[in-house]
Design a protein that fits this description.
The protein has about 300 residues and is an alpha+beta fold. It has 2 domains: about 5-210, Dbl homology (DH) domain (Dbl Homology Domain, Chain A, Up-down Bundle); about 225-300, PH-domain like, CATH 2.30.29.30. It is about 55% helix and about 15% strand. A 7-stranded antiparallel sheet has the order 4-3-2-1-7-6-5, with no helix packed on it. A hairpin with a 4-residue loop joins strand 1 and strand 2.
């Protein structure tokens, strides 16, 4: 008798989970533990840096090693009398939200490894020493750290495949479909966490360029577009270089600073988007011009 397709996928899930737990063990019990020990002896880097690099890897490792892997193993041993994994994965899914923190921190962690490898020779040497061990399989710390980032998409793929191969009358169909839905939501949660982090980082960078003016710094703002623009002066028929930042709620009309100490721009005017009108002009002398009129005032601008 050939094994049913869905059992093959369930076995693949178990095998990859076993390999994954080994990888988590390496990250938490070897890299993190040894680097932390050295940090406590004051030999390599501050303890805080080590904690920031590894984020919440210990919680992720404990969860997979002590709960999810043993549950899967037990289930696969009983497959002949209870051929199902959907319910086990449903129990797993809510805990996968823990990954949001790890995934959000990943880029920062990799950057910290690079920075501190240059700053501290003993830190660099300890990592190199662990990487030489057989358990590392000639791969770098950064490579191993990528594994948790890729794990949730892997669950999603395996489970999709599992649901597809299940016979219609399978006792696991309802649970497996529900589990897939839950995993999908967690993956979305993780991606949303990354997107939100990137948005806030970009927003913060813009605020710094604007000199952190108090009434402008607001985490809920969204930058829609920015770019250079010419201000048309009808009085003396000339244009001057300005810069615009368009947010969801305001348009900032700025002047580039000649001496860039701290801020790059000075905000000259803020026009509320609420009630703002934009009108194109047909000016032969200044092509691509338009009027922006808001509660605060009206500007004649020329685009490239």
């Amino acid at each position: 008798m050939q094994e049913p397709e869905e059992k093959k996928i369930a076995l693949e899930l178990l095998e990859t989970e076993q390999a994954y737990v080994n990888r988590l063990h390496l990250l938490d019990q070897v890299f993190y533990t040894e680097l932390m020990k050295e940090a406590r002896n004051g030999k390599t880097v501050p303890e805080e840096v080590v904690k920031m690099i590894f984020s919440n890897i210990s919680s992720i490792y404990q969860f997979h090693a002590k709960f999810f892997l043993p549950e899967l193993q037990k289930r696969m041993e009983d497959w002949s009398c209870n051929p199902r994994i959907g319910d086990v994965i449903q129990k797993l899914a809510p805990f996968l939200k823990m990954y949001g923190e790890y995934v959000k921190n990943f880029d920062k962690a990799v950057e910290l490894i690079t920075v501190w490898s240059e700053k501290s020779l003993s830190f660099q040497e300890l990592i190199a020493d662990i990487q030489k061990r057989k358990v590392c399989a000639n791969l770098t710390l950064q490579h191993h750290m990528l594994e948790p980032v890729q794990r949730i998409p892997r669950y999603e793929l395996l489970l999709k495949d599992y649901v597809r191969k299940l016979p219609p009358e399978s006792p696991d169909r309802d649970d497996a479909e529900r589990a897939l839905e839950m995993i999908f939501m967690v993956a979305k949660h993780s991606n949303a966490a990354i997107a939100e982090m990137e948005r806030l980082q970009n927003l913060w960078a813009v605020y710094q360029r604007l000199g952190l003016e108090d009434d402008i710094v607001d985490p809920s703002n969204e930058l829609i577009k920015e770019g250079p623009i010419q201000k048309v002066s009808t009085r003396n028929n000339s244009t001057s270089e300005k810069y615009l930042f368009l947010f969801n709620n305001m348009l900032l009309y700025c002047v580039p600073k000649v001496i860039q100490v701290g801020a790059e721009f000075q905000v000259h005017l803020r026009i509320d988007v609420d009630g703002m009108k934009v009108q194109e002009l047909n000016d032969m002398q200044f092509p691509h011009t338009f009027l922006v009129s808001g509660k605060q005032r009206t500007l004649e601008l020329q685009a490239r």
